[in-house]
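Please fill in the sequence for the structure shown.

STRUCTURE ENCODING:
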């Protein structure tokens, strides 16, 4: 989508972007619930939301790696989430903060 010089988008562009985001999040949540069932996890809603954010950012393959194909405990998953903070081999502050926020949600911390 084209963004005007002043950083604005049209209502139509915003609506389409919102629809695309909703579709992406639905697919990410589907991956979480699918692997949760496959590996017999009983995730809470907060854990599903945190893993949906994680999966939206990193994809189903990395979710499967995070779960270690179902061999990790919930506590181990929470700890390992913080390891996914690099892009191009470089630790990025934004990813560090995103993973911390996802971990906080995963743990149900307000």
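FILLED IN BY: designer on duty
SEQUENCE:
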């Amino acid at each position: 989508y084209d963004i005007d010089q002043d950083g604005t988008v049209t209502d139509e562009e915003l609506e389409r972007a919102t629809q695309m985001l909703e579709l992406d999040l639905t697919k990410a949540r589907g991956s979480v619930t699918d692997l949760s069932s496959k590996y017999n996890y009983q995730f809470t809603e907060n854990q599903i939301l945190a893993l949906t954010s994680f999966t939206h950012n990193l994809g189903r393959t990395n979710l499967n790696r995070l779960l270690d194909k179902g061999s990790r405990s919930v506590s181990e998953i929470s700890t390992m989430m913080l390891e996914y903070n690099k892009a191009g081999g470089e630790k990025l502050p934004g990813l560090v903060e995103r993973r911390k926020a996802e971990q906080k949600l995963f743990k149900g911390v307000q």
